[in-house]
């Protein structure tokens, strides 16, 4: 498949003041003193006043140093004739090559990331607390990263260790005789403060400098991080409003004389189309993208010149006007290293600011048809050799692809498998006595692919593949909920914190209901359709429900689960999945992909 060159869009300020601005720049340029820099062939414009700075960015890598499997490793592209195609992409070996190619002949190039570089990672990285991923980004010359919610999966101390280095306090050094050195790049956490000291737990900003060019970077994660991370992971921390925090430090940078500012924001948007090269500035600037980032972008101070975003795993390069009505680029590069964004920031040496009328931005595929970076290949092989004894162990067999993360409908086949596994695991009276199981969709991180990834054979599910699907080591729980509370939970999927971006819980066999998406809010749940084993749910009856501990803590916008009674904690979710495959699949009788027909969805 030939990778077509990506379109680049020129952002122009369509205001009556544009001509006046251009004239003013010309007058100032003419007034430059003798000895001012002239064109050097490295991206500067002929008048010598401005220089083009290349900003390369990405987000939500999640430890995918190996190419992600199945649909998790594909991006969708719109071709010139209007048709679409899937392109295999991602993996550290290819991302490194792409970034290095892009930097060639660009003397002013800075690389930044907008959070979730680590966490929810495949076994090759997750088994070693994501040290392999940090090492990979050191080799790729990443300059700066903002934190995301997954940087807090293992808590504040572990995040600090990823920054500063040192061996893991419990598991020790990952490689014999080697001490983990930490990241060469600064992690920024401007809106995450210590509850007691009220000070940021990491640097709030940094300034990138090159030959007189100065660009400030501010890093924030979404304010709602405590709602999607375990309570232990955010203990003692406070998360603040994204707009207020960015504005605070933009003002500080401005006073320091840093006029060019980029915000790294781990919060994102939802484009109207999934194709990475979809024009989200049609019919007007930013009209093709919605979601939390749009309000954030419209609210952040005009002092900030560009927003690199993430979290939603979507791809877009749009222009959402700032509060002054000026164009401002807002980008996101999908996830797992499948894309990178190339943004040209035209830096005015006279003012020290970005000329907003000359900002280019586009996403580019990290194609697997290009050469692998040899240093990344060595890194993957080295860590893979350490992980292989655990990763290669077969835990089950499947007769075809079982989609999870890549499923196109709210209920996924892999969600059904996980729901059934958790119910069966927690059903015995001495293990919880569960009658049904619920699984948060965000906890399903990949698909199970029939085609062999290595030499294990087609249809074999390895421990490493199971870990990639469920990498959090969430402990299973069983709690008491009334029928009324269960209905409330279903309503919370599509209302409150989840109204704009629904989170549809995956359900075990025997539990069914109808979701009417033609309605709004909690009315989308057809309450009299909710049944367990064919019988209508009794609002006053108590039911025993299995779920992971993260969900039982009320996270992901399901506060009703915190009211569950008689909580019993079992073993991990991955152990439940492994046990299920052991019981229901074999080489001669593999598990078939479920139909995913437990939730009836009425579409708009």
Automatic annotation (TrEMBL):
Residues annotated as domain 5'-Nucleotidase C-terminal = 395-563
Q: Which stretches are tagged as biased composition: Basic and acidic residues?
A: 75-84, 584-604
Q: What would be one Pfam family of this protein?
A: Metallophos
Cite the entry's keywords alphabetically: Hydrolase, Nucleotide-binding, Signal
Highest taxon of the lineage: Bacteria
The portions of this protein that span the membrane are: none
Annotated organism of origin? Streptomyces marispadix
Q: What is this protein called?
A: Bifunctional metallophosphatase/5'-nucleotidase
**Occurrences of domain Calcineurin-like phosphoesterase (ranges):** 58-314
The Swiss-Prot or TrEMBL record describes its family as follows: Belongs to the 5'-nucleotidase family.
Checking InterPro entries in the record gives: 5'-Nucleotdase_C, 5'-Nucleotdase_C_sf, 5_nucleotidase/apyrase, Calcineurin-like_PHP, Metallo-depent_PP-like, TAT_signal
- Residues spanning the signal sequence: 1-36
State the residue spans of region: Disordered: 61-88, 582-604
PROSITE patterns named among the record's database cross-references: TAT
């Amino acid at each position: 498949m030939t990778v077509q060159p990506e379109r680049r869009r020129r952002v122009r300020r369509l205001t009556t003041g544009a001509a006046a601005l251009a004239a003013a720049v010309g007058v100032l340029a003419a007034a430059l003193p003798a000895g001012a820099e002239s064109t050097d062939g490295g991206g500067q414009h002929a008048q010598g006043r401005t220089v083009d700075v290349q900003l390369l960015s990405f987000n939500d890598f999640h430890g995918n140093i190996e190419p992600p499997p199945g649909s998790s490793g594909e991006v969708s592209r719109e071709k010139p004739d209007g048709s679409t195609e899937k392109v295999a992409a991602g993996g550290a070996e290819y991302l490194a090559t792409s970034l290095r190619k892009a930097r060639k002949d660009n003397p002013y190039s800075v690389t930044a990331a907008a959070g979730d570089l680590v966490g929810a990672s495949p076994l090759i990285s997750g088994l070693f607390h994501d040290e392999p991923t940090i090492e990979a980004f050191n080799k790729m010359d990443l300059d700066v990263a903002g934190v995301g919610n997954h940087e807090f999966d293992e808590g504040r101390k572990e995040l600090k260790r990823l920054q500063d280095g040192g061996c893991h306090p419990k598991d020790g050094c990952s490689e014999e005789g080697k001490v983990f050195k930490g990241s060469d790049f600064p992690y920024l956490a401007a809106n995450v403060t210590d509850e007691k000291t009220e000070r940021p737990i990491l640097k709030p900003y940094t300034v990138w400098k090159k030959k007189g060019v100065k660009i400030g970077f501010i890093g924030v994660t979404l304010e709602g991080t405590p709602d999607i991370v375990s309570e232990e992971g955010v203990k003692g921390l406070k998360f603040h409003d994204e707009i207020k925090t960015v504005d605070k430090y933009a003002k500080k940078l401005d006073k320091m004389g840093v006029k060019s500012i980029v915000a790294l924001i781990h919060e994102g948007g939802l484009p109207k189309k999934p194709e990475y090269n979809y024009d989200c500035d049609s019919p007007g600037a930013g009209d093709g993208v919605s979601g939390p980032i749009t309000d954030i972008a419209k609210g952040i101070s005009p002092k900030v010149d560009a927003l690199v975003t993430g979290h939603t795993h979507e791809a877009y390069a749009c222009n959402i006007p700032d509060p002054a009505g000026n164009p401002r680029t807002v980008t996101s590069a999908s996830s797992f290293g499948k894309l990178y964004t190339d943004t040209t920031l035209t830096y005015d040496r006279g003012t020290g600011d970005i000329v907003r009328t000359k900002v280019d931005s586009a996403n580019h595929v990290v194609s697997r048809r290009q050469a692998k970076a040899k240093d990344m290949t060595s890194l993957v092989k080295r860590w893979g050799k350490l992980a292989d004894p655990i990763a290669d162990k077969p835990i089950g067999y499947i007769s075809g692809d079982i989609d999870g993360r890549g499923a196109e409908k709210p209920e996924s086949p892999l969600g059904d498998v996980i729901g059934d596994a958790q119910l069966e695991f927690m059903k015995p009276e001495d293990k919880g006595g569960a009658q049904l199981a619920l699984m948060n969709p965000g906890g399903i991180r990949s698909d199970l692919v029939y085609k062999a990834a290595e030499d294990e054979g087609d249809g074999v599910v390895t421990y490493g593949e199971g870990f990639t699907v469920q990498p959090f080591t969430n402990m299973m729980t069983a709690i008491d909920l009334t029928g009324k509370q269960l209905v409330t939970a279903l309503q919370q999927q599509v209302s409150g914190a989840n109204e704009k971006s629904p989170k549809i819980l995956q359900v075990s066999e025997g539990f069914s209901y109808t979701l009417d998406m033609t309605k709004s809010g909690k009315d989308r749940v057809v309450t009299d359709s909710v049944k367990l084993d064919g019988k209508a749910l009794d609002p006053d009856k108590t039911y025993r429900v299995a779920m992971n501990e993260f969900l039982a803590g009320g996270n992901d916008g399901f506060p009703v689960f915190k009211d569950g009674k008689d909580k019993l904690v079992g073993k991990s979710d991955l152990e439940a999945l492994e046990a299920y495959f052991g019981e229901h699949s074999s080489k001669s009788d593999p598990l078939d992909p479920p139909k995913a027909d437990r939730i009836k969805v009425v579409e708009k």
